[in-house]
Amino acid sequence: MAENSHRGGRVIELLVLQALVYQSEKELDRSLAILERAVSLAEQESYVRTFLDEGEPIVKLLYQVKSRRVGAGYASELLSAIGKATGAELPPTSS
Known about the structure:
The chain has 95 residues and is an all-alpha fold. The chain has one domain. The protein is 72% helix and 0% strand. It has 5 helices and no strands. α1 (8-24) packs antiparallel against α2. The chain is globular.
């Protein structure tokens, strides 16, 4: 429904939550595929907030997305934004 209503922010939020659910169920491939889609959509709209709100669990997934090359550039930007927003010392985003 969110996609049909052109509610991009809501779609991104739902995809991120789905990715986290699959991660908790140990379905990493499915989790990463969904998060890659969320990152791709987020990049189109320069969307960051949902990723910032999810904290450490999403950081771990974003590092894995970054290593898969799909969405790697924006995943790095998101990781940088999370580090700046939280003041956390994240590992460097470039490999």
